[in-house]
Specification:
CATH topology of the largest domain: Rossmann fold
CATH architecture of the largest domain: 3-Layer(aba) Sandwich
Strand order of the largest sheet: 6-7-8-3-9-10
Structural class: alpha/beta
Distance between the termini: 18 Å
Shape: globular
Number of domains: 2
Helix content: 25-40%
Strand content: 25-35%
Number of helices: 11
CATH class of the largest domain: Alpha Beta
Order of helices and strands: EEEHEEHEHHHEHEHEEHEHEEHEH
Number of strands: 14
Radius of gyration: 24 Å
CATH superfamily of the largest domain: P-loop containing nucleotide triphosphate hydrolases
Length: about 325
């Protein structure tokens, strides 16, 4: 199953748990087959409880699959060869909060047999990479959520891994913290690393990812390039905001629109075809009204997410040539 272009490969991966007094079987991951390519940012998307964390735990060798196979760099998951090439930040990590930022990274460096001057150099490099040099001697208990996420990513990089796996790295962060983590992920890709992260924040995934996989109730429902999955960025609808529109002209435009919202002296209309947009513009010009804004709304991962959540048939995987 190994391929030099693939960093992660899974084939019909399954995980079943027994829960409750009677040991009822619950399938968390169901016949999951996907591939992560070298050097890409790969988003693993789905709602809470979809099976994202369970899948990542299997890939990290923290839990065992019920059936199916998976490999990292061609090595079986859980093997020392696989673990030596990856860095991992779990969704809810436990940090020893009495340690300082520098002590925390030294601790993880020792786990990878890093010592002395080489370790100190690596710690300083990583703190600079994540913008945390100022916090080297600050205890983790005094870190904000965003600072903890950044130093957590630094810990995932301590062994200079080829694959960085992040479980919900933007969860619970404010807009500034999310931007900081997004920028970090982009810098990791620029440095040649492969990044795989799970998320239910679709906007962040759309900004960052080369390809994404979406799972619902443990099943893969879509996989491919973001642009392919959202129909090549085609425009679904256009929103117009118009000022000083006379009632007769408003009636004409309303007959073309799928949605009309009155906003004082302004009106907002939503049109769903280019032909309707052209007709509406003719009406606006004829009525000598003022076009304040014209905003095309493109298909997004959120549209795909909602469509799949409502039970649309699984999408065919879009493979790279």
């Amino acid at each position: 199953m190994a391929d030099s272009d693939f960093v992660v490969q899974t084939e019909k991966l399954c995980k079943t748990f027994r829960v409750g007094f009677w040991g009822k079987k619950v399938t968390a991951v169901d016949l999951l087959s996907l591939e992560v390519r070298r050097g890409e940012v790969f988003g693993f998307l789905g709602p809470n409880g979809a099976g994202k964390t369970t899948t990542l735990k299997m890939l990290m060798g923290l839990i065992y699959p019920t059936s199916g196979t998976a490999s990292i760099f061609g090595h079986q998951i859980g093997s020392p060869d696989a673990k030596g090439k990856l860095g991992f930040l779990p969704e809810s990590p436990y940090f020893y909060d009495y340690l300082t930022g520098g002590e925390f990274l030294r601790f993880y460096g020792h786990l990878f047999n890093l010592w002395g001057a080489a370790l100190e150099k690596r710690v300083d490099e990583l703190l600079d990479t994540v913008g945390m040099t100022h916090a080297k001697d600050l205890q983790l208990r005094k870190f904000s959520k965003g600072m903890l996420q950044r130093v957590g990513i630094a810990q995932a990089l301590i062994n200079d891994p080829e694959l960085v796996v992040l479980d919900e790295p933007m969860s619970g962060l404010d807009p500034i913290g999310r931007k900081e983590v997004r920028d970090l992920i982009l810098r990791l890709r620029e440095s040649g690393k492969t990044v795989m992260f799970s998320s239910h924040i679709l906007h962040d995934a759309e900004l960052l990812c080369d390809r994404v996989a979406m799972i619902m109730k443990g099943k893969l429902v879509a996989c491919g390039h973001v642009s392919e999955l959202i129909a090549g960025g085609t425009t679904n609808e256009v929103e117009m905001v118009i000022d000083r529109l006379l009632p007769e002209a408003l009636e004409q435009i309303s007959s073309l629109a799928s949605k009309v919202v009155l906003q004082g002296e302004r009106v907002m209309v939503v049109l769903t075809s280019q032909q309707d947009v052209d007709l509406a513009l003719d009406v606006i010009r004829s009525a000598k009204a003022k076009l304040v804004a014209l905003t095309p709304h493109k298909a997004s991962l959120e549209d795909l997410f909602i469509r799949e959540a409502k039970g649309a048939p699984p999408a065919v995987e879009a493979r790279v040539a």
